[in-house]
Write a structure and sequence with these properties.
- The chain is of the alpha/beta class.
- The protein folds into 2 domains: 172 residues, Rossmann fold, CATH 3.40.50.1970; 174 residues, Dehydroquinate synthase-like, alpha domain (Up-down Bundle), CATH 1.20.1090.
- The chain is built from 14 helices and 11 strands.
- α2 links the parallel β3 and β4.
- α5 packs parallel to α9, α6 packs across α9 and α10 crosses α11.
- The radius of gyration is 20 Å and the shape is globular.
- It starts with a strand and ends with a helix.
- The structure holds nicotinamide-adenine-dinucleotide and zinc ion (ZN).
Length: 360
């Protein structure tokens, strides 16, 4: 079992990573000053497999928690669903110290976190992420949100959990495609922060792609350390945290242009990282051999490098609609090498379009 601390002053918390975290979950809940009633938010895929397991554990720790299953999928990250959960919280008599547990992928984590942040101006929140993407990305950093019909993640808050429990055993039931989507974000951490980690992924392709035990533990822990390191230097996304956006500028445009259905998030990020690598090369920041390493690792981990059905014009238009675009300027996170990135808000249009041409 590994513990990754997230240092955020009075909002600090620990991430527990390992196979079988029953004891840690029980001990934590017994020591936390929670009141007796709580809520587990999960979805219709994860609830039937793990809902009872968590409910029993919490009961052993003296908590009476109800399980609320939302339909699996992005459409549950809505104000309507949040309202149903608020109603549930009120009906079950939850008070200011009643914990909300998120048991599932990033959808459940973002939704349950939003509810925890808002109900009674904030109740304790605990994450039990079960998808690889949620373990290495969405459950760390404290961003919680629901979608609005006019855009993703537009209604939300920064709200840190009290603890995060990543039980690697839950990954055994995760569909292959969801594993690869998590690997997209894992590759990103190597590129933005840690050349050795990138090399580790290159050298251990089979174990990485199959989430072999040691590899899964190492990748999850290292990704969380990197994200925690970045977030603790910039909790509210005023500066450094922008590097986590590497690959995401083009990815968001790709997701939007393909109706959020053709590519899932990690797949779009993989293509977006190739786009950012090409821009970096066109600006003379890296040479082709570095672009080739990025592409080769992405392909070996079963992720796409081209956005089928997208056009350069559409993608270019949509990068200006990104939530992170400020004052009409797109801040690209670009590569100086593997392991080192920097921001650039002045990339000429023809360079961006030239790179986009290579990914459509
Ligand atoms: N808050 C953040 O910082 C942040 C960062 C990245 C992404 N996100 C959000 O995360 C969401 C995507 O997360 P996701 O990829 O986990 O999607 P998801 O929650 O939809 O999970 C993916 C699929 O895997 C299923 N699943 C999850 N765990 C499983 C398991 N152990 N066994 C079997 N099936 C399982 C889910 O039911 C779902 O069908 C998006 O809404 C995105 O906006 C948030
Ligand atoms: Zn992402």
């Amino acid at each position: 079992m590994r513990i990754v601390p997230v240092e955020l002053g009075k909002n600090s918390y620990d991430i527990y990573i390992g196979n079988g975290l029953e004891q840690q979950i029980r001990d934590f809940c017994q020591q936390a000053c929670f009141s007796g009633k709580g809520l587990i938010v999960t979805d219709t895929n994860v609830g039937p497999i793990y809902g009872q397991w968590l409910q029993d554990l919490l009961q052993q720790a003296g908590l009476q928690v109800e399980v609320y299953e939302v339909p699996a999928g992005e459409s549950s990250k809505s104000m309507q669903m949040a309202e149903k959960l608020f109603t549930k919280c009120i009906e079950t008599g939850m008070d200011r110290k009643s914990p909300v547990f998120a048991l599932g992928g990033g959808v459940v984590g973002d939704l349950a976190g939003f509810v925890a942040a808002s109900y009674m101006r904030g109740v304790p929140f605990v994450q039990v992420p079960t998808s690889l993407l949620a373990q290495v990305d969405s459950s760390v950093g404290g961003k919680v949100a629901v979608n609005h019909p006019l855009g993703k993640n537009l209604i939300g808050a920064f709200y840190q959990p009290k603890a995060v429990f990543m039980d690697l055993n839950t990954l055994q039931t995760l569909p292959k495609r969801e594993i690869y989507t998590g690997l997209g974000e894992i590759i990103k951490y190597g590129i933005i922060y840690d050349a050795r980690f990138f090399q580790y992924l290159e050298d251990n392709i089979e174990q990485v792609a199959s989430l072999a035990n040691e590899a899964a533990a190492h990748m999850t822990a290292r990704s969380c350390e990197i994200k925690a390191d970045v977030v603790s230097q910039d909790e509210k996304e005023l500066g450094l945290r922008a590097i986590l956006n590497f690959g995401h500028t083009a990815a968001h445009a790709i997701e939007k242009n393909t109706g959020y259905t053709k590519y899932n998030h990690g797949e779009a990020v993989a293509i977006g990282m190739v786009c950012a690598a090409y821009i970096s090369k066109a600006l003379g920041m890296i040479d082709q051999s570095v672009v080739d390493r990025v592409i080769s690792l992405i392909l070996k981990l079963h992720l796409p490098i081209k956005a089928q059905g997208c056009t350069v014009e559409d993608l270019y238009r949509d990068i200006f609609h990104d939530k992170k675009t400020v004052g009409g300027k797109v801040k690209w996170i670009l590569m100086e090498s593997i392991g080192q990135v920097c921001g650039n808000s002045n990339v000429p249009e023809e360079i961006v379009k030239g790179a986009m041409q290579k990914i459509v």
